Amino acid sequence: MIFFPDSEKIKDIINRGEVLEADYLDTVQDILNDVKLNGDKALIKYTSQFDKYNLEEKFYFDREELKVFFDEIPEDLKTAFVNAKGNIELFHSNQKEKTFLVESKGAILGQKVTPIDSVSVYVPGGKASYPSTVLMNVIPAKVAGVNRVVMTTPASNGEINRLVLGVAYLAGVDRVYLIGGAQAIAAVAFGTESVEKVDKIVGPGNIYVALAKKLVFGLVDIDMIAGPSEILIIADESANPKYVAADMLSQAEHDELASAITITWDKELAIEIEKELDFQLKKLNRADIARKSLDKFGGILLVDNLDEAIEFANSIAPEHLELAVKNPFELLYKIKHAGAIFMGHFTPEAIGDYFAGPNHTLPTGGTARFYSPLGVYDFVKKSSIINCSKEYLDKYGKLIVKMAESEGLEAHANSIKVRLEGRDGF
Amino acid sequence: MIFFPDSEKIKDIINRGEVLEADYLDTVQDILNDVKLNGDKALIKYTSQFDKYNLEEKFYFDREELKVFFDEIPEDLKTAFVNAKGNIELFHSNQKEKTFLVESKGAILGQKVTPIDSVSVYVPGGKASYPSTVLMNVIPAKVAGVNRVVMTTPASNGEINRLVLGVAYLAGVDRVYLIGGAQAIAAVAFGTESVEKVDKIVGPGNIYVALAKKLVFGLVDIDMIAGPSEILIIADESANPKYVAADMLSQAEHDELASAITITWDKELAIEIEKELDFQLKKLNRADIARKSLDKFGGILLVDNLDEAIEFANSIAPEHLELAVKNPFELLYKIKHAGAIFMGHFTPEAIGDYFAGPNHTLPTGGTARFYSPLGVYDFVKKSSIINCSKEYLDKYGKLIVKMAESEGLEAHANSIKVRLEGRDGF
């Protein structure tokens, strides 16, 4: 499982998320058009076809109807979710931005921050239906001050996930629609008889959901498109191979496309980690998935030194980066691209996935080069503020006229001139 | 030109940007695939076909080659652009975000801010080729600290816009590629023999450019998709009809799809503005365009009172909102959705288009409901930071294990357990 920087494996890892979108484009476009045209009727048809669920029985749960699902969560698990919610709220409150005004050469300039009015969170059904997804997507919207937060989640094979609905109540969701796939995205993007149109759609989903989000992008806003998950661990001689192996497996168990890599320059450590992986794998329920993920897209990368490890990490721009080293804070500023950085030996990824507070919705597949974790900033928007005086115009008006004229936009120039010289100016 | 809140015109205004994207999807997808597969060869072919320009003669200008275009700008116009650049830099420096660390229940949490590595700015060719576009798109990227900023702009009908190239030098662009359309987007998204792949693409463009950006979204990041431009002016009895008319025309001259609306509850003012529009229109070069825009998508909306005016403005979520009222700051917090807000009688939109400092790349067509002006925040990304101690795990580890188990993710739970109890824990 040990490999080297010149390995062919690295190319496989980088390209593992590539999907031939073109193959799905027509199908998704058809579903979007159908929902846009036929509304609820189309939703009922697709939900029966794909989820084996009859929407006409129960289309959605309103806030007060969700409480029963929250109440039935076992006490210790409820405590965990309530604690996690508090931590997530607390961390995200640090991301709140304020309206500002500044004076600039006699003009008053500024930026007003306003929450988005309404948001829909997509939560997958079936095996990938996770309550932590609900907390991580809903809470930043609530902290931002979004007025209406709804959720769409399919009753896959006719079954609802009661824990997901309970946590939706805890998180403050206003309504949960039992729809999924591209049709759910279409419903909240266009609106139907029963579904109110929203301003932004967030949350993970399969290729149909992702492509539908891309196609409605512009009509509504969307978050980033999530690909398969990954962890990269930089381990020095201080690392505990048992911990490193456990953290790799926590990523590898997700799905066969997940990638779990440890980079080290300590050959002995590499061998120890390999042994631990074998040992711990045997005990896992999801051993088959984890083993396939490790064989194809994971392993222990042996490099020459720390600098090479960091260079490789930046080139991969991993979703999760673990610095299993003695002095992680000293490395922080060498890390250019990573979704979240887990520092030191007592910060396994799972702490961030569930509990500590920062968001677990992170840029995957190298997109940490340009995307950020989901945050409060994704649920507000800004308006520029400009206030000028007659004196400002007197001083700078002629320069602005010059610029407008250089672009051939006469009426732009006139709007300045009329204030300087009246209509005699033009 | 006066109309009322129940007018059919309002629906036309809202829907005026709607384009049947599906009609263009195959063409754009074909161009993208062709450039991905055939690189420069495809770029040369499309550029010859669409722009009547031979890329093999001159493919791009490097920074030092651009200086000649800057040097030839007339002195007074140069002064204007240099001043504008200073103002834009100054305003955008207020948007810079800082890395932070906070302590939370014994864990250290934080958020690291890092500039995006490389950005490409699209600047249209032909009639919509504006030097101000260059400043407004390039400067926030430079302020953010982006390492490499390139530009793509077509030599439409074989002709380059020398002023645009000169201002590209002033703004700090590293290289200008003489390519346009969907093929330019493909080139910087995928990379070719001559074009280096970038991490983010910004800038306005026609339907082909917009759709290409949408389709490469995810592989690279993009800015918002721009539609036709609009201004909404709320005018009270203190407004000067000459100024209001001039500002409406500065929007209406852009193109026939532009929308310029004044809302007022003062009937006399409405009549005065109407007269002024007629008078000022006659003098304009672009009178035909402006008149068509006003007839179809503009005019003076007569409402009952200020509250109704603000409600209407929020429902339109205009790109540009002008508060031509006596006390504009008192209205600021009633405005929920607007790209930029121009306050008072001496702040025509043109000041913001060119000079004051805030960005002129603004959300159009109602998308101010969820988009912000282009800003420094568009050219950085964040990484979460999490650092926990053994004590933190001892205290909260069991709750995290509960949550992982509730999702059936055994290895996630193990990664906590191994640190609490060693491998005996699982």
Automatic annotation (TrEMBL), chains A, B:
Its cofactor is Zn(2+). Keywords: Amino-acid biosynthesis, Histidine biosynthesis, Metal-binding, NAD, Oxidoreductase, Zinc. The active site is at residues 319-320. Binds 1 zinc ion per subunit. Pathway: Amino-acid biosynthesis; L-histidine biosynthesis; L-histidine from 5-phospho-alpha-D-ribose 1-diphosphate: step 9/9. Zn(2+) binds at residues 251, 254, 353, 412. SUPFAM superfamilies: ALDH-like (SSF53720). Substrate binds at residues 229, 251, 254, 320, 353, 407, 412. NAD(+) binds at residues 122, 183, 206. Signal peptide: none annotated. InterPro entries: Ald_DH/histidinol_DH (IPR016161), Histidinol_DH_CS (IPR001692), Histidinol_DH_monofunct (IPR022695), Hstdl_DH (IPR012131). GO terms for molecular function: histidinol dehydrogenase activity; NAD binding; zinc ion binding. The keyword Phosphoprotein does not apply. It catalyses: L-histidinol + 2 NAD(+) + H2O = L-histidine + 2 NADH + 3 H(+). Catalyzes the sequential NAD-dependent oxidations of L-histidinol to L-histidinaldehyde and then to L-histidine. Belongs to the histidinol dehydrogenase family. This is Histidinol dehydrogenase. It comes from Deferribacter desulfuricans (strain DSM 14783 / JCM 11476 / NBRC 101012 / SSM1). The gene is hisD.
